[in-house]
Amino acid sequence: MLREYSGNGERIARIRWGFISEIEPRTVLDYGSGVGWFRAWRPPGVEVDSYDIGPVPQTEIRLVMYDVSCFWDVLEHIPNFEDLEPVFALSRHIALTVPIKPEDTSLSEWKHFKPGEHLHYFTRESTEAFFSRYGFRLLKSSTAECPPREDVYSFLFKREV
């Protein structure tokens, strides 16, 4: 799939790289990497390890510390967050995207309401509280991917010393 060009895949990967560029990452973990678009469009000089449960090309987790671990469209699918604690421990920063329901939309009518696929639903406040529990503070949030996507928020967190 990665060999087939996807304009949206490239566009979203470039938006994501722009979103984390201020921390100037040199080592990146793309957790839940899918077919690997984020890694494919990495800037020169950036080492990206990729991990996914699917049968896609990936490097696995090879380092003991990453400048940033990315969870693009991942958290809402994870059954047990305790499984992610080892990954959080090897991360200086966390970057992620999650869908967040607009206040004026009912859950059952929302585009991202996907019982059985989306196991968790977040608000901006609950996302910040979740990562605070693991020792991270919010640096910024944005709807940088909208468009082409809808109701998807990006977050960047930094580990508190």
Describe the structure.
- The chain is an alpha/beta fold.
- It has one domain (7-159): Rossmann fold, CATH 3.40.50.150.
- The chain is built from 4 helices and 6 strands, in the order H-E-H-E-E-H-E-H-E-E.
- It has helices spanning 7-20, 37-40, 85-89, 124-133, and strands at residues 27-31, 47-51, 68-72, 93-99, 136-142, 152-159.
- A 6-stranded mixed beta sheet has the order 2-1-3-4-6-5, sandwiched between helices.
- Strand 3 (68-72), helix 3 and strand 4 (93-99) form a beta-alpha-beta unit.
- The longest helix has 14 residues, at 7-20.
- The relative contact order is 0.17.
Question: Summary?
Answer:
The protein has 161 residues and is α/β, with parallel strands linked by helices. It has 4 helices and 6 strands; from the N terminus they run H-E-H-E-E-H-E-H-E-E.
